[in-house]
Amino acid sequence: MVPLIDAAALASAESASDPAVVALDAACMESGFFRLSSAAVPCSLVEGALDAACGFFARPLEEKLRHCGSAATGWRGYTPMGGGHNCSPASRQPERKESFYWGEPDTDGDAAAPPAAELAALDAAARVFHASMLEATRAVLRGLSLAMGMAPSALEERVFTAPSAKVLLVAYDPVERSELSCGSHTDCGFLTMLCSRGGRGLQAAP
Asked: pLDDT tens digits for 30-80?
């Protein structure tokens, strides 16, 4: 069983002996996975982001392809099935998934261009979800800092002053028993926070 950590307790923890910090430390050392209490991010924001993603993925393919990510957009945008984002060489090619990478645009101080009409709902939902997830991440960083014997704000001050944090929305097609929607892999970056609906999600391998 993946342990459940109280996010609110992490956010207010002051020492390595705090029960929430002890639980987080043990989870990271023993399996590398943990769950955060639902108070970390309101369920309404999770549901809003998932509903908006479902709405986008339900659009016709030719419409979705108009919003493909590229080097010019920092790869923000849509990636269709077979779009080169296979997670594992063990997967049957291509993996049966499509995705949309949402991230705050690089504006260099200029106002960001408004999203296309068909992306407006997705952009609005992802924006508030992203902000809430950043707050949840700060609670985890506080717990990790304390667990390593540092000041509560140590990791945030070192790695989170201008975070490169994205929302990756993924839709998986049904697969046969012998197929994989997403092969075994290790994510890039420092910390991955997963949300799913209806008990579905990736399997965790220690």
From this structure: 888 898 886 778 889 999 999 999 999 999 999 999 999 888 887 889 998
Query: For residue 92, which amino acid is it?
Result: R
Question: Rounded to whole angstroms, what are the CA distances from 108 to 70, 91, 104, 111, 137?
Answer: 19, 39, 12, 9, 25
Superfamily of the domain at 43-139+155-172: B-lactam Antibiotic, Isopenicillin N Synthase; Chain (2.60.120.330)
Contact 52, 124 (CB under 8 A): yes
Q: Report the alpha-carbon distance of residue 73 to residue 62 in Å, rounded.
A: 19
pLDDT greater than 60 at residue 91:
no
